[in-house]
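User: Hi! I have a protein structure encoded as tokens and I'd like to know what sequence might fold into it. I'm fairly new to this, so please keep things simple.
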């Protein structure tokens, strides 16, 4: 019974060694990209991200905003709060605040 953990450990070490020596690429880690909302603007207004990344909007204004994509997602942002969205597909979209349509942003999502 003691041999099971030892064998499993050896197999894991061999698998890791093979992955390292065969040039298997390391998985890409998802990132969180922060967009600040302040004085009726998104900053940065244009961002580039990968599928699986998360955009976190931080609303520093004293009134509510949204991050709204016309034919897709909408993120509600209460005053002095934050909210996020994990990007699911490669696309290039414009978004805006439904309450303040002059607030505009753009996100380009690429495959990892």
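Assistant: Happy to help. Inverse folding works backwards from shape to sequence: for each of the 112 positions I chose a residue that suits the local structure. Here it is:
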């Amino acid at each position: 019974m003691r041999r099971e953990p030892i064998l499993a450990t050896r197999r894991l070490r061999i698998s890791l060694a093979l992955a390292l020596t065969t040039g298997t690429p390391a998985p890409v880690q998802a990132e969180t990209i922060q967009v600040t909302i302040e004085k009726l603007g998104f900053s940065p207004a244009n961002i580039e991200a990968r599928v699986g990344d998360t955009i976190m909007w931080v609303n520093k204004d004293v009134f509510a905003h949204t991050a709204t994509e016309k034919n897709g997602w909408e993120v509600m942002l209460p005053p002095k709060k934050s909210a996020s969205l994990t990007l699911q597909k490669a696309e290039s979209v414009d978004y805006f605040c439904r309450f303040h349509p002059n607030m505009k942003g753009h996100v380009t999502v690429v495959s990892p």
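A useful reference point when you look it over: The helical segments are 3-21. Feel free to ask if any position seems puzzling.
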